Records
---
Amino acid sequence: MISSLKSEKKIELLFNKGSLIKRNGLLLKFYFFNDGVVKYGVSVPKKNFKSAVKRNLIKRKIRESVRGSDCFTLLPVGVSFFIIYNYNSVLESKKVCALVDSLLKKLVISFK
């Protein structure tokens, strides 16, 4: 089961020591904690979108794409990742879903 990454210590460690995968305007930082659970987080910079409504819309689209993806079941247990949205416009849900799927596939491949 996949859940949200909430621990500040884990997030800080993930950003300091984690690896990076880039795909167009999406970044995926990941780190293998070996703690028995798969966790993820989502970030949309306030610099790109001043409106909280738009930032929250994008976060919801990304979270739904992660939960709907089949790739996260292939991830090794213990990995945590963080997705950062760096586009300047709001993308359609299908486009976001395709980008998130491609990022998760790259993440799965990096552990094989």
Note: The longest strand covers residues 26-32.
---
Amino acid sequence: THRQVKLSKLEVYLEADIGNTAAWGAGGAEREPAQMGFQAIRVKVDIEGDADKETLADIVQHANYFSPVANTMRNPVAFEIGTL
């Protein structure tokens, strides 16, 4: 919207490696927390609109940079859990 580019296609493809064998009953119960959960996440964006490919790629990078979800995945977040 800010760049006045009209998108005609936006498809996001996600792929990840997860180390969570203990939860699936496949062994691995001796793993440390750092070995569990997502180990790598790959995102591909198929985007089309009324702008050149460089502008569309820049829009994707801008969205990635300001994404609260992407930034939460990239940066450690304090996490607390307790009982009531």
Note: Residues 53-66 form the longest helix (14 residues).
---
Amino acid sequence: QVDETRQKILEAAEKLFTENGFFETQIKDIAANTGVSRNTIYRYFQDKSDLAMKIIERKVSKNFESYRELIEETQKNDSLKGLKKLEIIITESWINAENGIENKLMAEFDAYYSGNRISEKMKSRFADLESREMEELMVGIIDDGKKDQSIRDDIDSHLIFVTVVNSIRALNQRI
């Protein structure tokens, strides 16, 4: 029953975060939607941010394999230049993908936790979400683009990767 209740809370929270956004959803709304008390929710999750992070972590973990496959498949296509490969990956994994909830929540988290508001624990959880393997694959595609001259070679590949990811998150915040 513990796992069942936790799952029920996560599903209700995800639904409400998707419909209303992180900021507009309150723990009492999640409790009412789940049919449990607020105290029950706090037994499973420290606070609303902890609950949202669990949802993001589950979604990112679930989508990681498909992202990796997309990147590796695109990487193998020698008929495409690096910039086109990067465009395909961005479009398929971040724009057209069915991962709106984690993009929306990540954008809202980025906005809320900007500056000094973020705790060390939350920083660590965000760092754990960022896959080094995914970053290495993306930097490899950027390096390919530098070699075929479709991507400028005077900027560090890692910096390009970080700029692209942060730009997409910023766009999600604006939207």
Note: The first helix runs from residue 2 to 20.
---
Amino acid sequence: MTVLRIAFIIFVLGVTSTLAAGMRTETLEVRSANGTHEFRVEVAETAAERAQGLMGRTDLTPDDGMLFIFPQSGLQYFWMRNTPTSLDIIFIGSDYIVRSIAANTVPYSEEVISSEVPAKYVLEVLAGRAAELGIKPGDRVIRIP
């Protein structure tokens, strides 16, 4: 590996860590048939934070996630570009109801993932967590930061 590639990788990791460190962290609660589940989420509110998302991140634990807050409800589009960890992407309406879930996304994929229905919030968690916790469309998010 060339010195330039190593320097680039170090730069990207540093930028990713810096961006993540600047986001506020909150607790989000989802109520499903299996009970209430808490996630510690980094909140992506600005366009820059939403664009960065979880790219380059490998440090998520089962109860971690990222909550994307959009200025208005609408169709939301995601991809897994530069994202090394498979995720469940949970699309949430402005009424805090889970609308759809893209489960077990493919790391590094540039395929567009659509909410298919309007959503104002999007929760990304480790792949398989939604099924493991029984989270499905129609469930309610109790607390959005």
Note: The chain is about 20% helix and 40% strand.
